[in-house]
Amino acid sequence: MTPWIIARLTFREASRKKILWAALALGVAFLAVYSIGFYLIRQDMLNSPRGGIPLVQNELANALLLAGLYAVNFLTVMMTVLTSVDTLSGEIASGTIHTLVSKPVERWQVLLGKWIGFAGLLTLYLLLMAGGVVLAVALIAGYSPPNLLAGLGLMWLNAMLLLCLSMLGGTTLSTIANGVLVFGLFGIAFVGGWIEQIGSALENQTAVNVGIVSSLILPSEALWKRAAFEMQSALTSLTGARMTPFSSVSVPSPAMIVYAGLYALLALALAVRTFQKRDL
Amino acid sequence: MMTPDSNSAIETHGLRKEFGQKVAVEDLSLSVGRGEVFGFLGANGAGKTTSVKMLLGLIRPTAGTGYLLGRPLGEAAGRARVGFLPEHFRFHDWLTAAEFLRLHAELYHIPEPVYRTRIPELLELVSLEPFAGQKLREFSKGMLQRVGLAQALLNEPDLVILDEPTSGLDPVGRLQVRDIIHGLRERGATVFLNSHLLSEVEITCDRVAFIKRGKVIQVNSLKSFMDGQLTVKVRARPLLPEVAAGLSRWGENIRVDGEQVSLTVNSEEALPQINHYLLDCGAEVYTLAPQRIALEDLFIQIVGTDGGL
User: Fold this and answer.
1) Cβ pair B94:A9 closer than 8 A
2) At what angle do helices B112-125 and B97-107 cross, to 10 degrees?
3) Which pLDDT score, from 0 to 100, does residue B29 have?
4) Residue A208 at interface with chain B, using a CB cutoff of 8 Å
5) What is the ipTM of this complex?
6) CATH homologous superfamily of domain B228-295?
7) Predicted structure pTM score
8) d(Cα B111, Cα B155) in Å, to the nearest integer?
9) What are the structural domain ranges in chain B?
10) How many C-alpha atoms does B294 have within 13 Å on its Cβ side?
11) Can you spell out the DSSP letters for A234-259?
12) Sequence-ordered list of residues with C-beta below 8 angstroms from that of B126, at least 6 positions apart, any chain
């Protein structure tokens, strides 16, 4: 099973190069800071005049939970791109790839193996970070958000989307160029998402359209907006008035989610095709 | 559709590779028999590495066809019986030597019980067994080349392609590689040696191909080359002109320069006869030395001093 061998190699590389351990240690530190912060804010609120009302407590817990997950989403995106951006282009540039693909293996197996390895690593990272945030809120405030699985699933899809994109870039571009491309597209999607939110609040359809187009260029921010929408409290959804980075006014449609999934698959398929054909 | 020759380990017909406007390999037509040790010679930039990469499916030919052990170039399954040491031997340097070999054994689909015994044997063969647990990052250039060579032998290959296998090695290492190549030949494996260390090619190879601008311009059998004509230098005292002239019965192109004579003879057998003749004529023999045309001279004759660039 060649892809499995390469996936294990990718895991081992992350471990040997201390990427795994750095991510784990800093992830735990992040969760500690988050938990302490959450606890202190909650204590402060419980002492306030209306702090005893459960609805208010839940609203606060939900807002802080989404704030935590927003940070996790961003960190996962960073992790995805930083860990995978060099995996193909680096091995092609150094010539390490020659010994691998001159074996009786197909190139697509090597690429798929790397993808599986990173997908596994990032899934663990997301589970640790998002799971930690959710657990901290549940333990401290006894609150859990609605549609948790759907929300986390969308965050996971976001990581996979960027992984596929950076694998695709790695088949043709140098490491730096690939990083510039993926982060550049991510930036467009990010700012486009904001334009859409503000445009939606101001009922400016043109601004909303700009946002939708940017989501078509890369649906990563759309996935987060949808994830936040799934997990935000019923009250926020009802009023729809609050506009923070952690919740959604203009909600990406399910069609956009399907689009994102297809986008990821297409990027991966193109990566395989390009890698199969290129000279090494 | 051409069919592969079952006696050939490597067979190519008009392989060509263009990179944009640049033609790296113009027309590579080669046939390397099974069990042969084959040298591939050419100046830097003559297209040697590009040719090797096409053989291994790392680079797609622009035109032409070829077979490796009877399987079309680029077919993954065809590489199961092939070992390859790349030119720059850059490996995953965060692995230990043993882990590195294990990884590549797995990629060859070698069963675990087999590679468990095979890896220590190979580490011993390349004199790296004390470093099995050391990371490749800490290896010297020569050690990397050795572990790379071990990697190329994991599957007990029928064909080994070595791209400059001794460039990083000291004389002892080179001798070991030579022994390994001899071992492969005895086992009946084919060795394709891309090297510009001519003395080494001269010693190890059965045949050599000279390549210039990505074209095979001559294939020489080194054995016939060894058995063929040779120039002999003779220094004897006193060397009377009639004695020197008498040497003509063994060879031609006789050039006399004082007490020195050079002539071309057809076989080594002439040497003791010349010795007897000179002694019988009352001359003391100081030198009787065959001068082979070194591969180096042949290389320069064929490839030219411009290096084929």
Assistant:
1) no
2) 130
3) 92
4) no
5) 0.87
6) Alpha-L RNA-binding motif (3.30.70.1560)
7) 0.87
8) 11
9) 8-223, 228-295
10) 7
11) HHHHHH-----TTS-SSPPPHHHHHH
12) B146, B147, B149, B150, B176, B180
The pLDDT assigned to A102 comes to 94
Instruction: Say yes or no: A9 contacts chain B, CB-CB below 8 A.
Output: yes
* Chain A residue whose CA is closest to B18: A279
Tell me the fold of B8-223. Answer: Rossmann fold (3.40.50)
Order across the sheet with B284-291: list the strands: B251-257, B260-265, B230-237, B284-291
pLDDT band at A232 (very low <50, low <70, confident <90, very high): confident
Task: Spell out which residues of chain A touch residue B82, defining contact as CB-CB under 8 Å.
Answer: 102
Lookup: tokens for A255: 């069609």
**3 state SS for A91-154:** HHHHCHHHHHHCCCCCHHHHHHHHHHHHHHHHHHHHHHHHHHHHHHHHHHHCCCCCCHHHHHHH
Q: Which of B53, B59, B108 sits opposite A104 (nearest CB)?
A: B108
Q: What pLDDT was estimated at residue B308?
A: 46
Q: Which chain A positions have a beta carbon within 8 Å of B94's beta carbon?
A: 13, 16-17
> Which residue has tokens 């003749």?
B277
Q: What is the mean pLDDT of each run of 10 residues along chain B (309 residues)?
A: 78 93 91 93 86 94 94 92 91 95 96 96 94 95 92 95 87 88 93 85 87 85 65 86 86 83 83 90 88 73 63
Sequence ranges of the domains in chain A: 2-277
Q: For residue B131, give how far its alpha carbon lies from the nearest alpha carbon of chain A (Å).
A: 18
Cα–Cα dist B188/B34, whole Å? 7
Residue B226 contacts A, CB cutoff 8 Å: no
- Asked if residues B294 and B279 have their Cβ atoms less than 8 Å apart, the reply is no
Residue B204: per-residue pLDDT: 86
User: What pLDDT does residue B292 have?
Assistant: 63
- Residues A183/A175, Cβ–Cβ less than 8 Å: no
Peptide bond into B111 cis (omega under 30): no
Q: Distance between CA A126 and CA A120 in Å, rounded?
A: 10
CA distance A165 to chain B (A): 24
Residue A234 has pLDDT above 80, yes or no: no
A13 — contact with chain B (CB < 8 Å)?
A: yes
